[in-house]
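Example record used in the benchmark description.
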Amino acid sequence: MENIVDNMDALNARLAQMRDAQKIFASYTQEQVDAIFKAAAIAANQARIPLAKMAVEETGMGVVEDKVIKNHYAAEYIYNKYKDVQTCGVIEEDKSFGIKKIAEPIGVVAAVIPTTNPTSTAIFKTLISLKTRNGIIISPHPRAKRSTIAAAKVVLDAAVAAGAPKNIIGWIDVPSIEMTNTLMQEADIILATGGPGMVKSAYSSGKPALGVGAGNTPAIMDASCDIKLAVNSVIHSKTFDNGMICASEQSVIVDKSIYDAVKKEFEYRGCYFLKDDELDKVRKTIIINGSLNAKIVGQKACTIAALAGVKVPEATKILIGEVTSVDLSEEFAHEKLSPVLAMYRANNFEDAVDKASHLIADGGYGHTSSLYINIETQADKIAVFSEAMKTCRILINTPSSHGGIGDLYNFKLAPSLTLGCGSWGGNSVSENVGVKHLLNVKTVAERRENMLWFRA
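Model output (structure tokens):
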């Protein structure tokens, strides 16, 4: 990896090296792959603190302690999820039916990494590629290239030391749109995490793509909910890494019978409700020329308030705007990727569901929705909510940032940092992306007499 990839010729040369390495890797046994996977995961986890510091220092976004947790999650949780999963050779066999399934790697993965979660996403994608005997080449975000590459190098060095081919992981050192587009066209599959424009480019590349859509998660607080649990779950989720996880709540929709109590709890826990003129100032700071203001992403609440010319206590956890419109003309109805939250009053549960549906249509189709409710007495409402929401993750009584990525506040929701949004979000998958999405599976079917008719 001595040569820097900063032009097309260097990129093509690196791709050729990686294809050679991947052909060798494709012959490895499950035991060899598992040893490499374990060594790489341990190395990434051991580097979680310096990588977190580097990411915050380079991007100027997020919270070091939370990025440490995300790096830990991407390494240890992903390892524990997949350590015993068969990804090489025969993965399923039924001799009585004459069926055998054989796993094969796809080839070289193009991985586009966002600026919001640079190191954790790089760890996640490189680990699942190693587990599936794929090569992977990373295109980092220009504002996060140093930390992204550092994370990839930690995984590569550990993998090679454990026996992997030396060019099995690569990256673009000086990323550009042109090189990223070329990479996506030349790779065998694309793992795309980022904004809608980048994901659209991935799906337009002519290669299979696993892209993820934008989130605009609404959280309904039903009259039956545990107010303390609901409010503090939202605060826990919305402040985590300053609100940059795409599954984080962007709005809360509160039943009118508990609205005042919910507001009081938010205030008691250190959230700030914007007054009339302050509301307009923050509106103009959230969205500029129809797009999210990049300067607020991953910043503290007090920093965002200062940008808007609003003075709030330095320890403020979340800026909350009490609004009524769920249309895109309302800036608070957008995805904000920061500790800024919209709060709506609902006349009843049907009104709350209607508002949530509109907010998802505003820019969160397929991603995540959340409901706080008494699960023992309100099963019918949960069914109505689940039926109405066009989202692939429907979370009940759960902090959505942590709940959406899986395996933290739930079981059987696969841990992932790439969350598929299905056809609603313009994606090819509607679940959390994992190792099965990076495998080709061959089915060997022996003859069995299965016909119920015959022609004489």
